[in-house]
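For the sake of transparency, this paper describes our internal protein records without simplification. The remainder of this section carries one protein's record, kept here as part of the documentation:
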Amino acid sequence: MTKHPTRLAAGLIGAAILTLSACGGGSGSTPPATESVSLSGVAATGGAFVGAVITVIDSTGRVVGTSAPVGDDGTYTVTLAANATAPFVLVASRTDANGETQSLVSVLESADQTVANVTPITNLIASRLSASGDPTKLATELAAGTTEITPTAVAETVAEVKTILAPLLEATGTSDADPLKDSFVVDGTGYDRLLDSISINIIPASSSTANIEIAVKQQLDEGTQPTALSFSSVATEVTPLPTIDSATLVPSGTAALIGEFLGRLTTCYALPTTNRVSGNSTVTASACQAVFAGNDPTSYLHNGSTVSSTGAFASLFNASAVGVVFSQGSYEFTRGNGDLVIGYKSRATDGSETFGTFVVRQNETGGPLYLIGNQYQYPGGVSAYHQLRRFITLDQEDYSYYSTGYTINVANLQSGGSAVFNRVEVTTPRGNVLTLLPGSGSGNLTLPDGNGAASGTNFIRQRSEPLNPTLVTAHPRDYENASLFFVNTDRTEEELASASSQGVWTFRYFLAGNTGNTADATQTYKTRARALTIGELRTKGFAALTAGMVADIQSGADATAGTLRLGADEPAYIETDGGGDGWSVPSGALPPTSLTLFGRYLNAANQRPRFDDTVSVLSTARKATISCAAASQNDTHCSSTVPGAFGANVDANGLHLFARESTGREYAHFYAMYQLNLNQPN
């Protein structure tokens, strides 16, 4: 294996290299400035990197050119300033309406070169050139002289990356392609098929290291773990991918079919609601019927939901959803039965955006794609989930901590006031079995508490660490609420980093009354991204309640319990008493897109069941109103006289600000309002 070029001794590079015009920062010479030249290439991840602007930074750290936003064909052109000095770092960035910035990086080692592609593979090359492993820091490192971008360094890094990817390159017929400079078309064929077939995740783990995962997107049986490898940016020897069967990869040209399908769906949503649908469950427009398998919307089934005004594609029946545009299609993987899972972005006319996945089917080879859903009868899903838990009442802030893991999402379905499920047993990718239970007042099935009863959470905390380890050395499970769920032994950082982004989870459903061992149904799910390590999580920023909002909560909190009594016959206002912002979003943090209020209420039986109520917000919002909504007929925490208001004797014990990345990773800044068990050694 070629040794990482940034770790080669300067003397091994050779004196001749130092005279080349492509020498970068730290070479001891000043490369000549370029004449006015134009760079061009393709920015793509399989589909075009639509909307991204390519910024070119030269060896001195100056921005020497920017492109127009990338269009549907993925191509770009940048005219460089006349005094631009090679080598160059190219950064393609786009920011969605939810505040998430997605970036890809590439390099151009010489002013003699005028073509530079920007793809996940060039991003990996940039990571291997970077001293920190973070490709977004490469330009800064180049200017500071801590990283070299020379023809030799780039050539050796390209060779290393091609060795790592060799089995996949062979399977896609792209072994001879130059990932930086060879032209290709964004149509799902040739090199673009390679990009469709690979997922490369580079996550900073500290100021000087990053964790890298390379996964193959392919067709596998439902219970089979995907092909993937993980390594640290400091690794000098990386084992290549195993042999890849070309027949399991996405068929050539699928990217174009995904784009065509999203175009048809956009055409459907352009129609007035009265033309699209009739009643609560009938789709009447031929343009809308044509996006479903068999031109029949009733064929669609996904996690128990069919097409209706209260089920799947409820937005079809909503007049405010006219004009929704679907774009940024991506191939995710192929299910065992041949159905494709594809990613997408939807943008409403108010500017709000959401990311998600569709399950689509192809009726014939090379034919169009149609919505079919996963054909599962019951709800389910898994998401990588991360939390910063803060304690803002009772002077417990020192005990704040991070947790990382997964949420297991099964809706707590009700029928006639009773739970539909007896339990759901979930097998993790590591083979561990967890049980989810129905509980009063919770929108989801939850994990068991220490007594075997339904807790208040569906979050598996695989690793937790104090926010400030110098203040508290005890593990959070030692002083936390018993209703939370911590694994008995924390996963190590290495174990978390080595988990696959597409881990397979198996759900076994037991309906009410079924206390035996034979499940009524079995469904499998794949995550779209793995949970972050705590080190990776510490590099992330979080949206936060404003100081004024925290002060308002603290002033109204119970002096002993720490909980906050909600106003009877009122909703909960997440804003300061004077109407000021309830939260702020620091630079680099994701804005919340929903807020959830947690708590307990006093019912007629003198019990205190749990509740949780959620409101969705635009990413531009900084205040919100959370309305009360009963989870079942037995849930009485809402006012009996004022719709959307809370009843009497309702106490909040937690509030979280929630954000989701385009990859499906979820983040919550949780503000806890209750008494901790602090009779533990620190």
